[in-house]
Design brief:
This protein is 72% helix and 9% strand. It contains 8 helices and 5 strands; from the N terminus they run H-H-H-E-E-H-H-E-H-E-H-E-H. The chain has a 5-stranded mixed beta sheet. Helix 1 packs antiparallel against helix 2, helix 2 (42-183) runs antiparallel to helix 3 and helix 3 packs antiparallel against helix 5 (259-272). The N and C termini lie far apart (151 Å).
């Protein structure tokens, strides 16, 4: 725009110079004509000069006026051009601003999508973790239930075997009775008496078996929560074996019962305290590792196993009120292992106290002896 203004100004100046030169040229020509024509008077000459001067001034005014008008037109065009350029610039800026707003909206939308994806991923991971945890819990529960079922199956099989044995024995007794009856002439009173004795014998056998099963069930319920490496409860040949590991009862190389051992003994004592017609043998067992020379209290594993059996018996009698006449304490040393002593796990199983609970057979023996005397 500045270049256009300068260019227009130079054109106007050039135009004024051309008109001035033309006017000067006319004046010179007139002067030459006057000089060539001596007849022209000075007065006419002056008038002519004034006239030319006036015309020259008018011409200059006209030229200046036209130049100003041209300049104003040019400036107006330039202002319109500037306004148009400003509008285009504003339109361009508005367009760029809208484009930036659209880009920002896309970015915001993408960020929201990313957040939603992250949240959904976290939710899915949480669901997977909960599913795995619930599956693991259910699997563990099913394993425990299966163990209980297996234990019940084994127990049922054992009971069936015992029942079959006792039923077979009873059948043998009845067979013998029938044989004796057929071979000998027995009066009716003696026959009825023997029948009654056989029934009493059968009742006694069933009673003792029922007592042992009830004791086993009660002890298992009382000792719920302990693991197999702490204690076990098994029925073997009509006797109930409650095995307590060393780690539950004693420190290594000691016969002093620990606090958790006292708790376990108390639970067993509560079951046995009011139970009649049973015998209780408490056996102490060790592994084959010799007593440390630093342990001056016990000479060998015989001493340690016996001391442990006696200490447990004393606690049951003095602390928990078990009748002393039903208890027998014995030390077995290392000679009755239940696992090889070649591994630490095997030696840990061998270091134990065993409660051997058996029915009191004195009443049964009385019936058998009486039956033999009758024969």
């Amino acid at each position: 725009m500045e270049d256009n203004k300068l260019h227009n100004t130079d054109d106007n100046q050039q135009l004024n110079k051309d008109q001035q030169n033309k006017q000067n040229s006319n004046q010179i020509n007139e002067k030459q004509n006057i000089e060539n024509n001596p007849k022209v008077s000075k007065e006419n000459l002056n008038n002519e000069l004034q006239k030319n001067t006036t015309q020259s001034e008018k011409v200059e005014e006209n030229v200046d006026t036209k130049a100003q008008k041209e300049l104003q037109k040019q400036q107006l065009k330039e202002q319109k051009a500037q306004q148009k350029q400003q509008k285009q610039l504003e339109a361009q800026q508005l367009k760029e601003q809208k484009a930036q707003q659209k880009l920002q909206q896309k970015i915001d939308r993408a960020n929201r999508n990313v957040l939603w994806l992250w949240f959904l991923g976290l939710l899915l991971a949480t669901i997977v973790i909960l599913f795995i945890w619930d599956t693991s819990r259910k699997t563990k529960f099913m394993k425990n239930q299966q163990k209980k079922i297996d234990s019940l199956v084994v127990s049922n099989h054992f009971l069936k075997t015992k029942y079959d044995e006792k039923d077979s024995a009873l059948n043998n007794m009845l067979s013998n009775y029938n044989k004796i009856l057929s071979e000998n002439i027995i009066n009716s009173s003696t026959l009825e008496k023997q029948k009654q004795e056989l029934l009493n014998l059968q009742k006694t056998i069933y009673k003792q078996d029922s007592i042992m099963q009830n004791i086993k069930k009660a002890i298992e319920q009382a000792l719920t929560g302990y693991t197999d490496d702490q204690l076990t409860v098994k029925m073997i040949n009509g006797k109930l074996y409650v095995t307590l590991r060393e780690k539950l009862l004693f420190p290594s190389g000691s016969a002093v019962v620990s606090q958790q051992g006292l708790i376990a003994l108390n639970k067993i004592a509560k079951v046995l305290k009011n139970t009649k017609n049973i015998d209780l043998t408490i056996e102490g067992h060790t592994d084959n590792v010799a007593i440390s020379p630093k342990n001056k209290q016990y000479k060998d594993n015989w001493d340690l196993s016996t001391a442990r059996a006696v200490e447990v018996s004393r606690i049951l009698i003095e602390k928990y009120g078990i009748r002393p006449e039903m208890i027998t304490a014995a030390g077995k040393s290392m000679y009755f292992p239940v696992a090889p002593n070649t591994t630490e796990a095997g030696r840990a199983r061998n270091r134990r106290i065993e409660f051997i609970i058996s029915p009191d057979l004195s009443e049964l023996y009385k019936i058998i002896d009486k039956n033999q005397i009758s024969k």
